[in-house]
Amino acid sequence: MSGQQEQLSDDELAAAWGAASEEGLPGEGGRVLNQAEIDSLLGFGDADAGQKDNSAIQKIIHSRLVSYERVPMLEIVFDRLARILSTSLRNFTTDNVEVSMEKISSLRFGDYLNSVPLPAMLSVFKAEEWDNYGLVVVDSALIYSIVDVLLGGRRGTAPMRIEGRPFTTIERTLVERLVHVVLSDLSASFDPICPITFRFERVEVNPSFAAISRVSNAVVVARFKIDMEERGGQLELLFPYATLEPVRELLLQQFMGEKFGRDSIWESHLADELWNTEIEILVILDEQVMRLSEVMALAPGSQLILNVAPDAPVQVRCASVPLFEARVGRKKNRVAVRIERDLPRRLRQAR
Fold first, then answer.
1. How many CB atoms within 10 Å of residue 73?
2. Dihedral angle of Cα 299, 305, 310, 312, to the nearest 10 degrees
3. HEC sequence for the chain
4. What is the pLDDT of residues 217-229, one digit of tens each?
5. Cα Rg for the chain, rounded, in angstroms?
6. What is each CA distance from 79 to 67, 90, 102, in whole angstroms?
7. Nearest residue to 39 via CA among 30, 48, 29, 31
8. Which residues on neighbouring strands pair with residue 303, listed in sequence order?
9. More confident of the two residues 254 and 161
10. How far is CA 60 from CA 48, 187, 214, 218, 237, in A?
11. At residue 53, what are phi and psi to the nearest 5 degrees?
């Protein structure tokens, strides 16, 4: 008897399970999960409710990633810098140096400062002609490698790193010399686009003291890898987009000379057309101010008395622009004008 009841209970459990399964089928009036069940499926407990809400809000706030327009010409400048810097650092360190550009990225300035691996040296420089600032960031691996190479370290040995201490005066001085080389080559890399002078300002080891822009402003960062025979590190160049604004139109070009430079064919054609252009010039014998009633009273046969002598100079104009001062005369039974001098430029601009 007890076995029959146990069998019936098993059958009842199977029927109940089947009914629950049928109720859960979509499109057939299935049960809708409540918020607690959804949180349980997603792994959120009651203790994680506040964290879940905060993370959702943060995702909404940061859902729009930093996406700015690309500057193709700036990529060419950085590629040119990598080639020039390889030669300069070979001369600077008297060692075999290879410089390669790893990537160019755009992000917010505050996000970049938070991502700088410490210890590092952040060198602030000023773009003189653009009247704004940028950063050269040298990581600790490159700092110790430069110090080791310049102070006569043997090749093929990794430099000794002593973490947890401030950089010494010698290390800061040697890194400043490296930054001067980088800024000089950076100026040379920009020369085909526009002349620019980058002046070294100071070195900071705390990212908070190297704030050259607001944390929410957009910056472009170029990362370079420097190899010196099993030694080396990374060097990063940071430009706020506000710094590049004066040459933004030039940097947006797809290739060199897209919007500037000389086109000899078009220039010659334009010059030929200008030389063949016909213009009308006026010889002003005299100018008078008259009442409107006097002008309306003029009729054929009326005489206008000029207030100038026969040999007085007259002006030659093109439209309303005075060009020359001349004298009126006669040549082969025709009235002629002889140009005597150019009128001053300031008089033309005043007109």
1. 21
2. -110
3. CHHHHHHHHHHHHHHHHHHHHHHCCCCCCCCCCCHHHHHHHHCCCCCCHHHHHHHHHHHHHCCCCCCCCCCHHHHHHHHHHHHHHHHHHHHHHCCCCEEEEEEEEEEEHHHHHHHCCCCEEEEEEEECCCCEEEEEEEEHHHHHHHHHHHCCCCCCCCCCCCCCCCCCHHHHHHHHHHHHHHHHHHHHHHCCCCCCCEEEEEEECCHHHHCCCCCCCEEEEEEEEEECCCCEEEEEEEEEHHHHHHHHHHHCCCCCCCCCCCCHHHHHHHHHHHHCCCCCEEEECCCCCCCHHHHHCCCCCCCCCCCCCCCCCEEEEECCEEEEEEEEEECCCCEEEEEEEECCHHHHHHC
4. 888 999 999 988 7
5. 40
6. 22, 17, 10
7. 48
8. none
9. 254
10. 18, 41, 22, 19, 30
11. -65, -40
- The dihedral through the CA atoms of 225, 226, 232, 235 has a sign that is negative
Mean pLDDT of 120-140: 90
* Distance (Å, whole) CA 56 – CA 38: 15
Cα–Cα nearest to 139, from 220, 76, 231:
231
Q: How far is CA 347 from the centre of its chain?
A: 42
| Distance in angstroms (rounded) separating the CA atoms of residues 231 and 185 | 22
Q: How far apart are CA 229 and CA 149, in angstroms?
A: 11
Tell me the C-alpha to C-alpha distance, in Å, between residue 97 and each of 40, 93, 230: 56, 8, 10
Q: Which two tokens stand for residue 138?
A: 């040298």
pLDDT score for 35: 65
Mean pLDDT of 264-272: 81
pLDDT at position 2 is 46
Contact of 106 with 196, CB cutoff 8 Å: no
